[in-house]
């Protein structure tokens, strides 16, 4: 079976969030169970700088709106999974990030940039494929590739079966109706039974409407997005397509996230030998200028700074954590007002709070390893990966009961006796503080060590997700 993963980012070539982890790890997991899995990705300058081998190049000529395109074939570092980079200098060779420019605003032609990516991905799933390889299934991810099923249904098909994965329904790819002729889609597609969404074009809706199957990144999130509170206006469409909608929990790449072999840590450790974790905590305290107090529970956070992630709740609970003798380390970036609020916390509370505004992969690993409690207080969370990393690193997750957090963390006082962290329900400072207090009340007791060991032996490896996706892909190809 030939499966194409279409995405706007894939780790380690380019990463802004969890989508990159999925797009990088899932094809490798599929390849391990015998699937011919490949990736199609924009050729951003930062990606081209990391490519050391170019297997082949194919000139596609003018594809959309007179933009010239070529495909560069390479391979993913480590896994060796084949990758096609969509090289279009006029659209992708620019400063800033994949989605925003140097001034923090969306690229104004994002509709065209990701329409081009989608168009090329769709071609790779048809007999007109320019590379001598045709996908049986195209797995599309979020609004950036939501037009792939639309192109196959409206202009380029018949072709591959399509699966559309919603990683975060809040990002919907909203543009004006006037983009349709620029991206090569017919005017009649601007309808309720099509791309129209409250008077605009939504590329996320395109994926939800035209794809053969829809998935989300956790079972609980699949239920939540079919409700008015969680669906962001898409809930009616998703309830209508409920028979085609399923939740497949994201996995963890334990080659990258395992304290027993993590080269980014100052000391390694495992569930059978936790001495290295104490060394990691002391090193983290030194790195962030905290007092070296092994008896103080250290709360870690690595996140995008936004209200969705509950960062404002952490700020509201911070003094309570400190009043009970805890320490806090935070790393991330995002909304400017939260960045500014967090930036000066270390200076205002020296020895007790450490912050880093920005992203650093090594530092994120060290925070996981050095913290005792890992904070993920999201108002909503489609899946979340950091809480699963925390479990393996022996840092008890403190999470809100939502989305994938509810699917991966059980409260330490759960009657099942299988608790692995601290779970709260109400998205408020008070709700967070209630879980913080339970963490302090459990700290240093046997129940803490039992929960830590249970968490470290949990298996959220990608092999489980890969098998679930394979079953879905087989259903689609058998039907075809």
UniProtKB/TrEMBL annotation:
Membership in a protein family: Belongs to the glycosyltransferase 1 family. Bacterial/plant glycogen synthase subfamily.
SUPFAM superfamilies: UDP-Glycosyltransferase/glycogen phosphorylase
Molecular function terms, GO-annotated: alpha-1,4-glucan glucosyltransferase (ADP-glucose donor) activity; alpha-1,4-glucan glucosyltransferase (UDP-glucose donor) activity
EC nos: 2.4.1.21
Pathway(s) served: Glycan biosynthesis; glycogen biosynthesis
Regions annotated as coiled coil: none
Key words, A-Z: Glycogen biosynthesis, Glycosyltransferase, Transferase
EC top class, as a word: transferase
Binding sites annotated in the UniProt record for ADP-alpha-D-glucose: 15
GO biological process, one term: glycogen biosynthetic process
Domain Glycosyl transferase family, residue spans: 291-441
Reaction(s) catalysed (UniProt annotation): [(1->4)-alpha-D-glucosyl](n) + ADP-alpha-D-glucose = [(1->4)-alpha-D-glucosyl](n+1) + ADP + H(+)
Organism domain of life: Bacteria
Gene Ontology cellular-component terms listed: cytosol
Protein name from the UniProt record: Glycogen synthase
Alphabetized HAMAP family for the sequence: Glycogen_synth (MF_00484)
InterPro entries for the chain: Glyco_trans_1, GS/SS, Starch_synth_cat_dom
General function of this protein: Synthesizes alpha-1,4-glucan chains using ADP-glucose.
Span of domain Starch synthase catalytic: 2-239
């Amino acid at each position: 079976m030939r499966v194409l993963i279409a995405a706007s980012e894939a780790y380690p070539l380019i990463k802004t969030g969890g989508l990159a982890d999925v797009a990088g790890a899932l094809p490798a997991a599929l390849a391990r169970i015998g699937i011919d899995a490949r990736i199609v990705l924009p050729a951003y300058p930062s990606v081209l700088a990391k490519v050391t081998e170019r297997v082949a190049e194919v000139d596609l000529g003018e594809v959309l709106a007179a933009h010239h395109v070529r495909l560069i074939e390479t391979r993913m570092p480590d896994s060796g999974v084949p990758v096609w980079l969509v090289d279009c200098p006029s659209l992708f060779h620019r400063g800033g990030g994949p989605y925003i420019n140097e001034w923090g605003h969306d690229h104004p032609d994002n509709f065209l940039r990701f329409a081009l990516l989608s168009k090329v991905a769709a071609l790779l799933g048809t007999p007109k494929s320019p590379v001598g390889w045709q996908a049986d299934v195209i797995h599309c991810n979020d609004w950036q590739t939501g037009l792939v099923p639309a192109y196959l249904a409206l202009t380029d098909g018949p072709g591959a079966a399509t699966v559309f994965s919603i990683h975060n329904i809040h990002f919907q790819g909203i543009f004006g109706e006037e983009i349709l002729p620029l991206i090569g889609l017919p005017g009649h597609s601007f309808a309720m039974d099509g791309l129209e969404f409250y008077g605009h074009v939504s590329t996320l809706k395109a994926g939800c409407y035209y794809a053969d199957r829809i998935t989300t990144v956790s079972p609980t999130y699949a239920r939540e997005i079919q409700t008015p509170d969680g669906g962001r206006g898409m809930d009616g469409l998703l309830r209508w397509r409920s028979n085609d909608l399923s939740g497949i929990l994201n996995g963890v790449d334990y080659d990258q996230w395992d304290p027993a072999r993590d080269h980014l840590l100052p000391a390694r450790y495992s569930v059978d030998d936790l001495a290295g974790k104490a060394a990691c905590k002391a090193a983290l305290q030194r790195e962030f200028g905290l007092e070296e107090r092994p008896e103080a529970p250290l709360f870690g956070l690595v996140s995008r700074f936004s209200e969705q992630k509950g960062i404002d709740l952490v700020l509201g609970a911070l003094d309570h954590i400190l009043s009970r003798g805890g320490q806090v380390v935070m790393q991330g970036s995002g909304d400017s007002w939260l960045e500014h609020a967090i930036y000066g916390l270390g200076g205002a509370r020296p020895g007790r709070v450490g912050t880093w505004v920005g992203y650093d992969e090594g530092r994120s690993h060290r925070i996981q390893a050095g913290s005792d409690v890992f904070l993920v207080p999201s108002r909503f969370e489609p899946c979340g990966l950091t809480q699963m990393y925390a479990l393996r690193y022996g840092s008890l997750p403190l999470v809100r009961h939502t989305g994938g957090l509810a699917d991966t963390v059980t409260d330490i006082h759960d009657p099942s006796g299988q608790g692995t962290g601290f779970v709260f329900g109400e998205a408020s400072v008070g709700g967070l503080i209630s879980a913080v207090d339970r963490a302090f009340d459990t700290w240093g007791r046997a129940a803490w060590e039992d929960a830590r060991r249970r968490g470290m032996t949990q298996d959220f490896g990608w092999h489980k997700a890969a098998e679930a996706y394979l079953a879905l892909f087989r259903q689609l190809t058998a039907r075809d």
